[in-house]
């Protein structure tokens, strides 16, 4: 029954993530058409401040709630309610302070950090959303621990629907007034959407409490809730605070360094917008299943580790690494083969296709880092992730300052490649050391890479000589399924996938 619940929740989160990413990708295409590459660059700069402030607002509390409820009160009731109340108090305080800081510091942030005074209205508008974000993070952590992810998924869908409706309603009125007004309209939509999502989650929580009150209301609440919440949340928060600060510095440095290379602030901002606002969402679009898998692993691994079920932990880690590597090698190969058609089909831009092709080989490292981070958090190894994150961010900033003014966007691509490989390998090494497991290089990496190379080369040959006259979109629709089927067939022949793996995929 528990396996069935896990698979059902994985399906719900994956379907939700796929839908949100699909809609979000086309929504970004729509936005880029309305405000242009420079507008997307400014929006990305403002969004970096948004991410930094939201890190302070959420304070790592979602993971803390998930772990504590999973370990102490997986059946819900009074113990889970007390954990949630304490976490909401902490997150509300953090969210209020973060919102006030952004509102009153909007002008100096725009003037001295972003170096673009047009960001002031958008920053002030986003500040109230931080209070909602903290509360939503607590509620999502609660539902993940309770293995009731449908409430969280429905809230995300509702949030995106509200965001898009507000943007569609406002953008045509504000965009002609300039980039500043257009970005303010988008951030207003984000703020309204966050409030709507928080309200939805709150109502869902009340319904869940009514169902569990009669069966588990007499359980004793755990002691020292605040202390335990802080013991989990503080290391995660410290890592995210520092990482967000360093990444914000990075996002502010890159357009300035690109401007030095191109001798134009507008050109540098447009290149930054194409990479971070257009190419990267495409590269992370297929990670829906792996992201859902990573989210669900936290309560599963945390509960098994708390009850000293070593065999279950090892089995979860083995299966997670195997699935992640096989899936990410396929995705990486598809991006490498279809980089140019993707750029043309989605954005009518060969330059974006070039960016996708350069970063495609790094995708297995990016995806692996996401899943390994979830496993480490479930195993109470967040301090190690903090160390690696600090090292990575410091290295990235140093390399950006040196390389980007000399080599432009190409230099920044070098930085991204080196950074993602380093961080992924450091986290993987820590996970293997903690669990005592060993990587199965042949079955998980070398043979799948060979299978993808053979399948990708075959489809590329057919594309060049058989259906070379097809449009970029039709080329994608024909080639991607063929390459994927060929890859799967070769994996079966090479013994990289077992019958048990196939049964699990069919179950999902």
Attribute tags:
about 500 residues, mainly alpha
Please write out the topology.
Blueprint: H1 2-58, H2 61-72, H3 77-104, H4 106-113, H5 120-126, H6 129-145, H7 149-174, H8 179-216, H9 225-262, H10 265-284, H11 288-306, H12 310-337, H13 339-347, H14 350-359, H15 363-378, H16 382-407, H17 409-435, H18 441-465, H19 472-494, H20 499-507
Protein architecture, described:
It contains 20 helices and no strands. Helix content is 87%, strand content 0%. It has 508 residues and is mainly alpha-helical.
Nearest-integer average pLDDT = 79
Q: Please report the number of helical segments.
A: 20
Spatial separation of the terminal alpha carbons: 14 Å
Biggest sheet record: none
Number of strands: 0
Q: What value does the Rg take, in angstroms?
A: 23 Å
Q: What's the quick description here?
A:
This protein is mainly alpha-helical and 508 residues long. It is 87% helix and 0% strand.
């Amino acid at each position: 029954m528990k396996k069935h619940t896990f698979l059902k929740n994985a399906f719900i989160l994956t379907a939700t993530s796929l839908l949100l990413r699909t809609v979000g990708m086309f929504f970004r295409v729509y936005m880029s058409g309305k405000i242009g590459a420079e507008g997307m660059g400014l929006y990305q700069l403002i969004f970096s401040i948004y991410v930094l402030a939201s890190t302070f607002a959420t304070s790592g509390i979602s993971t803390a709630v998930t772990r504590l409820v999973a370990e102490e009160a997986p059946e819900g009731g009074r113990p889970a309610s007390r954990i949630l109340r304490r976490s909401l108090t902490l997150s509300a305080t953090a969210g209020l302070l973060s919102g006030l800081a952004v509102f009153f510091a909007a002008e100096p942030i725009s003037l001295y950090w972003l170096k673009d005074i047009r960001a002031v209205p958008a920053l002030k508008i986003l500040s109230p959303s931080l209070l909602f974000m903290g509360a939503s993070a607590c509620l999502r952590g609660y539902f993940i621990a309770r293995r009731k992810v449908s409430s969280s998924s429905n809230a995300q869908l509702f949030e995106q629907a509200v965001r898009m409706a507000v943007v569609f309603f406002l953008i045509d009125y504000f965009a002609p007034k300039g980039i500043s007004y257009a970005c303010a309209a988008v951030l207003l939509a984000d703020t309204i959407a966050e409030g709507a999502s928080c309200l939805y989650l709150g109502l869902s929580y009340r319904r869940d409490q009514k169902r569990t009150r009669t069966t588990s209301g007499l359980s004793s609440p755990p002691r020292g809730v605040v202390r335990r919440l802080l013991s989990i949340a503080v290391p995660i928060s410290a890592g995210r605070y520092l990482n967000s600060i360093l990444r914000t510095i990075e996002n502010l440095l890159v357009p300035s360094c690109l401007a030095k290379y191109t001798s134009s602030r507008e050109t540098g901002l447009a290149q930054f917008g194409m990479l971070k606002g257009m190419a990267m969402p495409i590269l992370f679009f297929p990670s829906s299943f792996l992201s859902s898998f990573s989210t669900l692993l936290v309560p599963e691994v945390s509960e098994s580790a708390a009850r000293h079920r070593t065999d279950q932990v090892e089995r979860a880690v083995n299966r997670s690494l195997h699935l992640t590597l096989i899936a990410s090698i396929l995705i990486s190969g598809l991006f490498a083969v279809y980089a140019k058609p993707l750029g043309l089909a989605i954005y009518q831009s060969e330059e974006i296709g070039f960016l996708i092709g350069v970063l495609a080989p790094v995708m297995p490292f990016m995806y692996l880092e996401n899943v390994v981070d979830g496993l480490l958090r479930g195993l109470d190894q967040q301090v190690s992730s903090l160390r690696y994150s600090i090292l990575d961010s410091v290295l990235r900033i140093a390399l950006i300052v040196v390389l980007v003014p000399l080599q432009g966007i190409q230099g920044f691509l070098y930085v991204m490649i080196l950074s993602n490989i380093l961080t992924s390998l450091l986290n993987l090494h820590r996970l293997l050391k903690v669990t005592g497991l060993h990587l199965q290089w042949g079955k998980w990496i070398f043979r799948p890479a060979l299978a993808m190379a053979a399948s990708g080369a075959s489809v590329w040959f057919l594309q060049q000589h058989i259906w070379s006259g097809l449009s970029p979109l039709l080329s994608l629709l024909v080639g991607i399924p063929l390459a994927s089927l060929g890859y799967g067939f070769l994996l079966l022949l090479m013994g990289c996938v077992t019958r048990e793996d196939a049964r699990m995929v069919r179950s999902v």
